[in-house]
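LAB NOTEBOOK - FOLDING QUEUE
OPERATOR: T.R.
BATCH SIZE: 2
PURPOSE: Compare the predicted structure-token outputs for two unrelated chains run back to back under identical settings.
PRIORITY: normal
REVIEWER: second-year student, initials M.K.

ITEM 1
FIELD SEQUENCE / FIELD STRUCTURE:
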Amino acid sequence: MSTPRRHRPPDAEVPSGAGLPAAVRIRLARHRRPLAAVLAAAATGFGLLALRPSPPPSVQILAASRDLPGGTTLRARDLRVVALPTRAVPDGAVRSGGPGRALTGRALAGRVLAGPMRRGEPLTDAGLLGAGLLDGYGPDVVAAPVRVADAGAVRLLHAGDRIDILAVAAGGPLEDIVPAYGRRARMVVSSVPVIAVPREPPGDHGALVVVATSREQAMALAGAGAGLSVTVAAGR
């Protein structure tokens, strides 16, 4: 006489892993904790991503793509677009993008830098020479042309350099015999910015440089006479 089969109620719980081969159950038991740790770490990571604040708003501006000396006539490849946080954008920065404000390096090609720029330095409106020599300077500033005896020294200058201008005073009575004897240099103006270095045909008449000065400094230069020389000042 056969033993009747016991039927499991439909709502009875099935033990974990029931119905699986023994080898599979052993493998699951062995990797249960590492798998749980991985899932917990993933959940934590996704939670942190959800809580992470969004990046601060940024502004696209133009910056130097390489080191540029003062007086450089800009070309398209001299500038590149960089994104800076809004709080880090300097006043007067030349922006790229935005309604009615789209600018690229090509749009500024031909403009002249008022001073030197380092690679990555943002370009501002004060860093560009305008149509007039004194654009960006105060109302009491004048453009003073100065003829310097050493034309070679002038060729080393660029717009934006700051220079000292010296005059050589006459020496004592022996100067008629030894022209250089007793001659002394005196400072006429100190640390004035160069705003233009005009191109002139070569000759023995020195070279011209235009500097931005006060009216008093311009008068001192006019009365300094011939034989002026220049040295580059420390603060550019």
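ITEM 2
FIELD SEQUENCE / FIELD STRUCTURE:
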Amino acid sequence: MLGVDVSLIFKLAALAIIITIFYSFLKQAGRDEYAYMTMLAGLAIALLWVIPLIMDLFRAVRSVFQLY
């Protein structure tokens, strides 16, 4: 029913590592604004990947409890 693909977990972990590296480099270089923008961009990408799974979860809960 709700199958979470393991590759999504690895993609999210890789994204988090990449964003963390960019954030730390930009923060140390004194580019705080760019560091925060990078962090927000990473968060937006992660949400775009996760939101379909959350919608599937809500559909499954709705069907289990027969809420239409």
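REVIEWER COMMENT (ITEM 2): The CA atoms of residues 18 and 42 lie 9 Å apart.
FOLLOW-UP: none requested
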